[in-house]
TrEMBL record:
<keyword id="KW-0472">Membrane</keyword>
<feature type="transmembrane region" description="Helical">
    <location>
        <begin position="79"/>
        <end position="99"/>
    </location>
</feature>
<feature type="transmembrane region" description="Helical">
    <location>
        <begin position="408"/>
        <end position="427"/>
    </location>
</feature>
<feature type="transmembrane region" description="Helical">
    <location>
        <begin position="111"/>
        <end position="135"/>
    </location>
</feature>
<feature type="transmembrane region" description="Helical">
    <location>
        <begin position="165"/>
        <end position="186"/>
    </location>
</feature>
<feature type="transmembrane region" description="Helical">
    <location>
        <begin position="225"/>
        <end position="243"/>
    </location>
</feature>
<feature type="transmembrane region" description="Helical">
    <location>
        <begin position="293"/>
        <end position="313"/>
    </location>
</feature>
<feature type="transmembrane region" description="Helical">
    <location>
        <begin position="325"/>
        <end position="345"/>
    </location>
</feature>
<feature type="transmembrane region" description="Helical">
    <location>
        <begin position="479"/>
        <end position="499"/>
    </location>
</feature>
<feature type="transmembrane region" description="Helical">
    <location>
        <begin position="357"/>
        <end position="378"/>
    </location>
</feature>
<feature type="transmembrane region" description="Helical">
    <location>
        <begin position="519"/>
        <end position="542"/>
    </location>
</feature>
<dbReference type="InterPro" id="IPR029058">
    <property type="entry name" value="AB_hydrolase_fold"/>
</dbReference>
<keyword id="KW-0812">Transmembrane</keyword>
<keyword id="KW-1133">Transmembrane helix</keyword>
<feature type="transmembrane region" description="Helical">
    <location>
        <begin position="249"/>
        <end position="272"/>
    </location>
</feature>
<protein>
    <recommendedName>
        <fullName>Integral membrane protein</fullName>
    </recommendedName>
</protein>
Length: 751
């Protein structure tokens, strides 16, 4: 696409204001606040736009050239893809946890190994849930029960067939499920090489690595490992059922091969550094593909053996060994989460903001991911069991009752959610007075001369500020929920002892068994409601700008980080967006322009990673304007090894401290970077960092302007390009850029 960048010596060509939007998914015309725009670089997924020349008001403040980078289509895509990502949400959360490691973790390799093994258990759990539906409930239980087959022609054709044939045929269902996630994880993305900037980054901070390295080799190796482990999990389920009644040398060979595949997967994820190689390694890649091929071959042999083996099958009510496998997997996840939390607490690092619970994001996110995966898997098995049991109401009939570990999982998940909600309500109640008192002080300082008629409007502003300040309370609440979810996982061990939740509660706690069964049923419906909510959110998040503002923060945060733990997580859009921004900025500077980078919300995170990748000859002619930025409020807490204070200070140093950050007290997401500058608060920060943050009064007033009939709106996290403070910040930063341009840029300016 032809570039319309002006190259003359006029003032409009001297400064280019490059705006990068946040999670709102706004169009280029909205970002530029101009009705007529055209694309000057990029494609439909991610492109650069400018106002069409020849129309009035086609330039920005003081005649600067306006340009917008629109990246909102990179993490979204079609409705089918969005739905697939919704159901793979636990994989995304587990992948994000890998990037939440503390800044000074004693063992980075140990931390990564624990996260990757936990990610592998999620894939195995995914397979076991499909095995539970296809093999345990349908092939083993339903097809052996005439009342279950009655009226179901789609199942009765296998009814009465040999057990091995039923298991072998329906084993194709989990094989197809593995193939589905394999296909989703291997679907082609954007070519990284097309957006790579030729310059070599000089930053020592880890945030500069996001988008700089090609993650596809690592993702391909992880994908091979997970596919191999998935097939080995299916093989283990079939062999566990077979070995309970029949033992032969063929069984020994197949069991040994399955165990060898699983052991190799664990070794590759924990102690072999070759998996992280980014340079071309044909032999290494061939080894990983070979492991995957061997696992597929073993699965074929296992299914064939199950079908043709003449030995009788046991007469157990449930698929032999299946419940124990599920319970041991739950217990293993709980032990891994505990080990990860112990490692982090032992040598946790600090973020920019000191907090007693800092740097615990990794174990919290991993626990939430495991809890969601367990809940979704249990709900799938439970719902299918309830569907097969046409006369029952809670899937507790003898024919199709789900395994005990799933019942304990649903019970534990429901109790964890209910307890967390009660704790959240209690914390909200206990902190409301303090938050309102702080909000009242801010409002009183911002609007000291408000008339009595504005009392209702002042109360609304106070409530908005108080709600925004609740963000700081989410950190301890998430830790509480993670602890409860881990405790719920640990209850699965009771399923190994064949203890029923209702019987145990009635015997030792005095809670009626019927109430516990009611709670299990309620938990199942609660999980179904959560799934339905995720589906609705996935459909509308990238179709409706207003709705996306609420759910897009989590989604864009998750898809910003490369897939380094779970290969079936959503693709990383930063692998294109950050190099593409770096390449565009470098091009503009090399054409003789100075560039003012303006990033809203998550756009400021993209620009932060981009600035750390740019060489000094480029950043000498760059200024940075951020607004509604989560860098200091969220990222420094959640990702202390990547967005800590030294990294943020290096960003300021790279741009010569030509950096202004605008923030509002009513914003629940964005905040200050270095200093709040709230009225009545003494700031101890000195130096150029103390001049970065500028607090915006929100709303601009609490009474209507003389030309209006309603007072100005409360903007919160909305962009501020149309505000006077934004224009003043642009004017100030362009003024700082011009002297450097006159001193160093005249020789390089095209004639």
């Amino acid at each position: 696409m032809a570039d319309a960048t002006p190259t003359g010596p006029t003032m409009s060509g001297a400064i280019v204001e490059l705006r990068v939007h946040g999670v709102s998914g706004a169009g280029a015309d909205q970002v530029l606040d101009r009705p007529y725009v055209h694309q000057v670089a990029g494609d439909r997924s991610g492109g650069f736009y400018r106002p069409r020349p020849g129309y009035p008001d086609s330039t920005g403040t003081d005649g600067v050239t306006l340009e917008a980078y629109r990246w909102s289509d990179l993490p979204s895509g079609t409705a089918v893809r969005t739905l697939s990502l919704v159901f793979l949400l636990p994989f995304m959360l587990c992948n994000v946890a890998l990037w939440m490691r503390p800044a000074n973790t004693a063992s980075k390799l140990g931390f990564m190994a624990l996260c990757r093994v936990l990610a592998l258990t999620l894939t195995m759990l995914y397979v076991l849930s499909i095995v539970g539906v296809a093999l345990d409930l349908v092939a083993w239980r339903c097809m052996d029960t005439p009342s279950c087959l009655a009226g179901r022609s789609w199942l009765s054709w296998l009814g009465g067939r040999p057990t091995g044939l039923r298991l072998g045929v329906l084993a194709l269902v989990p094989v197809a499920a593995i193939g589905l996630v394999w296909w989703l994880g291997a679907r082609p993305g954007h070519s990284f090489d097309a957006f790579r900037t030729p310059s070599t980054p000089t930053s020592k901070h880890q945030l500069s690595a996001v988008g700089q390295w090609d993650g596809e080799p690592l993702v391909g190796r992880l994908r091979s490992v997970h596919v191999a482990a998935a097939f080995a999990t299916l093989d283990g389920s079939l062999l566990a059922a077979r070995v309970s009644q029949h033992r032969s040398w063929v069984m020994v060979i197949l069991l040994a091969a399955t165990g060898a595949v699983l052991l190799t997967c664990l070794v590759l994820l924990t102690v072999v550094p070759s998996i992280d190689r980014t340079d071309p390694a044909p032999r290494v890649d061939a080894f990983f593909r070979g492991l995957r091929t061997i696992a597929c071959g073993v699965t074929v042999l296992v299914i064939v053996h199950v079908v043709i083996s003449p030995a009788p099958w046991p007469q157990d009510r449930a698929l032999p060994g299946y419940g124990a496998m599920v319970a041991w997997l739950f217990v293993s996840q709980m032990m891994l989460v505990t080990a990860l939390a112990a490692l982090v607490i032992w040598r946790r690092g600090g973020g920019q903001h000191g907090a007693p619970l800092r740097a615990l994001g990794a174990p919290v996110f991993v626990t939430i991911a495991a809890g969601l995966a367990v809940a979704f898997s249990a709900e799938l098995v439970y719902r299918v069991a309830d569907l097969l049991d046409r006369e029952g109401t809670t899937a507790d009939s003898l024919e199709t009752s789900p395994p005990l570990p799933y019942k304990w999982a649903i019970f534990g998940f429901f109790m964890a959610v209910v307890t967390a909600l009660l704790v959240a309500a209690l914390v909200t109640r206990l902190t409301r007075r303090g938050r309102r008192r702080a909000a009242q002080a801010i409002v009183a300082a911002d609007f000291p001369h408000a008339p009595a008629s504005a009392a209702d409007r002042l109360r609304r502003v106070e409530r908005a500020i108080a709600r925004a300040r609740f963000t700081e309370r989410l950190e301890p609440l998430s830790v509480v929920y993670a602890g409860l979810a881990a405790l719920g996982l640990s209850t699965s061990v009771l399923g190994l002892l064949q203890l029923m939740p209702g019987e145990l509660a009635q015997r030792y706690v005095g809670v009626p068994e019927s109430m516990v069964n009611f709670l299990i049923g309620s938990g199942s419906y609660a999980i179904a409601a959560i799934l339905l909510g995720l589906v609705v959110g996935g459909l509308f998040a990238y179709r409706t700008a207003g709705f996306r503002r609420y759910v897009g923060v989590l989604w864009d945060l998750g898809t910003f980080w490369p897939r380094a733990a779970h290969p079936f997580a959503p693709p990383c859009y930063a692998e294109r967006a950050v190099p593409e921004l770096a390449k565009r900025i470098s091009y503009l500077v090399e054409q003789g322009h100075c560039v003012l980078l303006a990033g809203h919300s998550h756009g400021s995170v993209l620009l932060a990673a981009t600035v750390l990748q740019l060489p000094t000859r480029i950043t000498d002619r760059v200024a940075l304007l951020t607004y509604g930025s989560p860098l200091g409020r969220l990222y420094s807490r959640l990702f202390p090894a990547y967005a800590d204070e030294p990294a943020l200070r290096e960003i300021g140093e790279r741009v010569g401290w030509r950096w202004i950050n605008l923030w509002r007290d009513t914003d629940p997401i964005g905040g200050w970077i270095f200093a709040s500058h709230r009225p009545g608060e003494a700031e101890t920060l000195t130096g150029p960092a103390a001049m970065v943050d500028r607090r915006l009064v929100d709303p601009e007033d609490v009474v209507p302007a003389p030309s209006d009939s309603v007072p100005p709106p409360i903007l919160g996290h909305w962009p501020c390009e149309s505000q006077d403070e934004f224009a003043e910040s642009v004017r100030e930063l362009t003024g700082r850029l011009l002297p450097g341009r006159q001193a160093t840029g005249e020789a390089g300016r095209p004639g």
